[in-house]
Structure formats: C-alpha cells, structure tokens
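Re: nicotinamide-adenine-dinucleotide structure - here you go.
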Amino acid sequence: MKNILVTGGAGFIGSNFINHILAKRDDYFIVNLDKLTYAGNLENLKQSENNKNYRFIRGDIMNSELVNYIFESYNIKYVINFAAESHVDRSILGSQIFYITNVIGTNVLLETALKFKIEKFLQISTDEVYGSLGAEGLFTESTPLSPNSPYSSSKAAADMMALAFYHTYGLPVVITRCSNNYGPYQFPEKLIPLMVINSLNNKKLPVYGDGLNVRDWIYVIDHNKAAELVLEKGKIGEVYNIGASNEMSNIEITKLILKRLGRSEDLIQYVNDRPGHDRRYAIDSTKIRTELGWKPEFYFEEAIAKTIDWYIENKSWWESIINGEYRNYYKTQYKL
Ligand code: NAD
Ligand code: TYD
C-alpha cells in the first residue's frame, strides 16, 4: 500500500486526482487534508467518499500539530501538495493569504515530511512561475523564474523552498509545473466555467483587455496522470513541465463556448484588463515526454465539449456555489 497525503483534495484538480486514482487503483491509501476554503467542495468527492482507501480530514496545512498527527497516524510515505490559494484575481484583491498558505503552509508540510522521512514529496506548481512570454518561445524547466502576480510569486517561493529542502536536507522532492487546466469541478470564477455559466444564464461574458492573452490548455485528467507518473517515477530534485501544446487566446475560448451553447457573440463584453496580466503562457513538455513517457491523451475539441456539457448537466453543483456565500464576491468582482 502507498499511504499518500493529498492536500487540497477538495479543490478542482485535487478532487479530480483522488476520484481518478481511487477509481482505478487499490494500492493507494489516500488521506485528503483540506481546509475547505471557498474553493474546496466535498460534493466533488461524492464518488470517492465511501472508498475504503480514503479518509477526509478538514484542516489547515498551516496546522503543524495536525499535520504531524496525520503523518504519524497514517504512516504517510508520499505527499502531493495541491493545497493553495490558487486564483490570480483574488491574489490581486488581497495577497497575504496567498503567502501564508502557499509559502508558510508548504513549509509546514516540508518540515513534517522531513521529520517522518517520507519517500517522495510532489509539489504541484504552475507554469505561471515563469512569468509571461512574448509571441514566440516556450517555457522549459530552465527558464528563469519571473512571476508577476502575488499568486505566481507565492508559488515560485514555494518551489524554491521545496528545492532548498532537497539540496540542504536531501528531502525527496519533485516539482511539476503545469499549464492552465480545464474540466469538471473547476471553481466558477475561472475563465472556462465562468464563460459557460454566464452564457447559460444569458449574462455578459467579461473578457479582460483585448482578449488576446494566450493560455496553454490541458484537460485535468491529463495533468493528473502526469502527476501520478511523476510521483511514481519522477527523479528527485527535478522539475517537470506539464502541458498539452494547446495554445488558445481568451477570445477564441469565449467564442467557442458561445458557439457550442448556441448563444450570440453579443454577450461578449470587453472589460478593464487585469493588472499585471501575463500575455502568454506556453509549455515545452519534452522532458516529461521523453524521460517518463507521458503524453496527453485527450484531444482539446472533445474534452472541451465534454467539459461544457458537464457544466450544463451539473447546474445544481455551480448554482449552489454562486447562490451561496460566494454571491457577494462574484457580483462585485465582475460588476455584471
Ligand atoms: P483550487 O483553488 O480549486 O483548490 C485548492 C484547494 O486547496 C481547495 O480545496 C482549498 O480548500 C484547499 N486549501 C486552500 N488553502 C488550504 C490550507 N491552508 N490548508 C488546506 N487546504 C487548503 O485549486 P486548483 O485549481 O485545484 O489547483 C490545485 C493546485 O494546482 C494549486 O497548487 C495550483 O497552484 C496548481 N495549479 C493549478 C492550475 C489550474 O489551472 N487550476 C494549473 C497549474 C497548477
Ligand atoms: P484564469 O482562469 O483566471 O486563469 P489564470 O489567470 O491562472 O491563467 O484566467 C485565464 C485567462 O482568462 C487569463 O488570461 C485571464 C482571462 N480572463 C478573462 O478574460 N475574463 C475573466 O472573467 C476571467 C476569470 C479570466
């Protein structure tokens, strides 16, 4: 049995990871530690909640006593750290919690992992630590870190710290840096779910700036399969970029969503640009492809269609979020 602590497993990517692993493997025992911030939702884990190889613990990765208790009681040998404040727009509105959770919280996990002599610590990072690209070029693992938002700077700090624990103490750390994910259970304020939900509700679609910022989109299961592989076979002390080589501008994504939903492009509303808005992200994932044999399995056209359909079919999931306590934030942020 591999006893794994998954942090942030009630969020978008972490819940997809747990559901994916528990559906196909019985050699993993997963303890999910999640604070259940606005972004955490146990509904995402309905299919896994009764699995004998799964435990949920509500708590903060900052809580060193609790983290120690979990390592000891469950004989944790592997950690996958998904837990984070993850939304760039929120980091612009208030940065402090990003540094607390993403930097100090990760420090608590690293310190505890060291104490309990674990076998591998996978730090889930992001391509945003590399900053912004111009029209040409791709991020490789040796691209210098140059983060521009409070969110990406906190993730870059966590990466540096994780690598320092490897170099200084020999902690078996690996880092993945993935591009923008899409799929089921993504929180409704991120680009794709927001545009789908607003279209379904015949509300305006707020496109920042000129809409020509580019993101490199990957289906969440492709990311999770890569994370699973890196956990098992990734070389310690290394960084692996993950991406599906699927660059799209925001306006292209927005129009594609409107088309699939049969809505008019009149719903598009250009709004003020995000401060410090990174222009383009694009990943070179040659390393994980050649060294570990990973490749994305989902075609964008099919997976985005499946994702849009998921939001159509799971209206109650997002309605309970946007009509809950989240409502105030959602309304003021977009003024729509
Ligand atoms: P998310 O915001 O949907 O989920 C984050 C989860 O962490 C939530 O369940 C939340 O409750 C939990 N959490 C927050 N603070 C916590 C704390 N102090 N203690 C315990 N739990 C806490 O984020 P996501 O999109 O699923 O991203 C997961 C990870 O992947 C993050 O580390 C993010 O930086 C990284 N990442 C995300 C993307 C993307 O496109 N979403 C791309 C690359 C990397
Ligand atoms: P987002 O989903 O917030 O992810 P990230 O900032 O981590 O890339 O945003 C994706 C892109 O979409 C980004 O360029 C900002 C843009 N965007 C809009 O144009 N309008 C919106 O309402 C949102 C949420 C994002």
